[in-house]
């Protein structure tokens, strides 16, 4: 359903699709759901904008973290599968997910990481920007990149746990580890990204090539040639979703992807966006996601993440589904917590 084939792999799309503005969301695999909530809400200061279930595995939570409004390009999501073994990052995976933070805030973050026992590395300089690599409690590789946040930036800082001067402001980039990058790079060009520069990659001794989309958030995809094998599990990325804001945008991108010999799914309604999935040539799972209807379509903006939301057909199974989920609480700045039950 989402496999790639070599048939027509060198054939470009007849008409270029509307370029993607950049990353929509990144979905990862976690372990303990409470530990995941504590870290991403309290330590990193993101807002839990949706508390739901994995629609393909309704016995598992699906947590969505983002900015104050759940703006496209800010949402890191997790499937906490407690029984999965730890994964290992390797070729054919998103190896790093990077977030934007305001210039001058990295001292704050390193002090916060020291206070909270977060595993992080020394700063790196990459394409003229300063990067702090770190890992979440499941070992997921993450980065903070210090950038200038413009006055007209579309994101809205969430300041319940972290001051606005340091708050995460959506995605900066993802890094793809690819064993044979040429076809993946051509796919990125077809999707509307432009190769902007290359430099040596400190972690692999290879080259890192940066591609840029046209949007203001989550605009970069870095490609690094790596042949080491990895495995899926806790602490790895499940898939990366790119913005195709409208259904027409998505349909055009789907056709362009299919013309390259890849095998995208039909559109799937994910309640807060509509999705198409496919594996690119090296095996990374890509998603195309619409902007609408958004996370505030079924909850008031000021109450996002306050309750367990069951979309569509799952509403009739609330008692059954809730009985199989672990009780969790969402950290509050005032020390109070929101429980996982519905009203």
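^ Assign residues to that structure.
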């Amino acid at each position: 359903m989402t496999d790639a084939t070599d048939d027509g792999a060198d054939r470009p799309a007849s008409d270029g699709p509307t370029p993607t503005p950049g990353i929509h969301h990144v979905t990862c695999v976690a372990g303990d759901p409470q530990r995941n909530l504590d870290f991403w809400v309290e330590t990193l200061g993101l807002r839990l904008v949706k508390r739901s279930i994995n629609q393909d595995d309704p016995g598992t939570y699906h947590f969505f973290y983002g900015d104050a409004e759940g703006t496209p390009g800010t949402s890191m999501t997790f499937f906490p599968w407690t029984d999965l073994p730890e994964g290992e990052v390797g070729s054919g995976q998103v190896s790093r997910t990077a977030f934007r933070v305001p210039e001058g805030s990295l001292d704050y973050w390193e002090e916060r990481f020291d206070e909270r026992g977060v595993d992080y590395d020394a700063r790196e300089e990459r394409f003229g920007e300063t990067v702090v690599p770190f890992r979440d409690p499941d070992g997921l590789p993450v980065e903070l990149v210090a950038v200038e946040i413009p006055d007209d930036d579309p994101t809205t800082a969430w300041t319940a746990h972290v001051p606005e001067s340091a708050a995460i402001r959506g995605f900066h980039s993802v890094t793809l580890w690819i064993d044979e990058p040429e076809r993946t790079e051509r796919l990125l060009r077809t999707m509307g990204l432009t190769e902007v520069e290359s430099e040596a990659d400190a972690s692999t001794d290879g080259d890192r090539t940066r591609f840029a989309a046209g949007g203001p958030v989550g605009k970069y995809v870095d490609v690094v040639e790596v042949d080491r094998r990895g495995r899926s599990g806790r602490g790895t990325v499940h898939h990366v979703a790119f913005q195709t804001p409208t259904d027409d945008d998505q349909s055009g991108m789907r056709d362009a992807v299919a013309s390259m010999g890849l095998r995208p799914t039909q559109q799937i309604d994910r309640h807060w966006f509509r999705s198409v999935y496919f594996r690119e040539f090296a095996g990374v799972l890509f998603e195309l996601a619409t902007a609408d209807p958004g996370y505030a379509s079924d909850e008031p903006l000021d109450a996002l993440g306050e309750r367990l939301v069951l979309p569509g057909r799952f509403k009739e199974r609330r008692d059954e589904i809730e009985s199989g989920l672990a009780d969790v609480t969402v950290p509050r700045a005032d020390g109070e917590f929101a429980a996982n039950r519905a009203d």
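Residues 100 and 169 are 5 Å apart (CA to CA).
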